[in-house]
Amino acid sequence: MTRDVPLAHSPPVVIPDASRSSLSSGPSSTPDIPLSHPKPAPPQATRQRPRLRASKAAITLTPSAVSRLRALITGPSPHLIRIGVRNKGCAGMSYHLEYVEVPAKFDEIIEQDGVKVLIDSKALFSIIGSEMDWQEDTLSSKFAFRNPNVKDACGCGESFTV
Question: What pTM was computed for the model?
Fold first, then answer.
């Protein structure tokens, strides 16, 4: 029996070439640095995330609308006014204004000349680019909206379609 037979059935062993290894200092020396290195810590973000800010307000207020809103907001119990859109009227949608005490999670806050107005998140795409005005006639007084997104409106002007 020869002793080489048991080694013939063993798995192959890879021996690194000393001429290509940068870890060894000589042909027969063992490396001083262990081959398994600890994993480095994951990189940390060093810069802050950019905040998205609108370059233009979703709605503009005329000076008469600002003065009327200021009169409505200042009172014994200060509130905010939310502008929304409801499915109503002969053309499909109409503007809806309501008092709220705190803004909802996704409301858009518009501040112009010291007056804060909220825009309902569901109505934002219907209202964006509009101008809000306060009009007083001998028979009525109301907020009027000039909306460039309106495709059709009813004859009385109470409802619109986008």
Answer: 0.60
C-beta separation of 133 from 67 below 8 A: no
Place of tokens 């804060």: 116
Amino acid identity, residue 129? G
Highest average pLDDT, of 3-12, 49-58, 63-72, 75-84, comes from 63-72
The phi, psi pair for 4, rounded to 5°, reads: -80, -15
Instruction: For residue 111, give the 3-state DSSP assignment.
Output: strand
Closest alpha carbon to 151 in 139, 160, 141, 140 = 160
Which helix (H) or strand (E) is 124 found in, with range?
Answer: helix 124-127
Q: 10 Å Cβ neighbour count for 68?
A: 20
74: its two tokens: 């200042």
User: Across the strands, what pairs with 84?
Assistant: 96
State the average pLDDT over residues 147-153.
Answer: 78
Residues 88, 126: Cα–Cα separation, whole Å: 14
Q: Helix or strand or coil: residue 72?
A: helix
Q: How far apart are CA 24 and CA 18, in angstroms?
A: 7
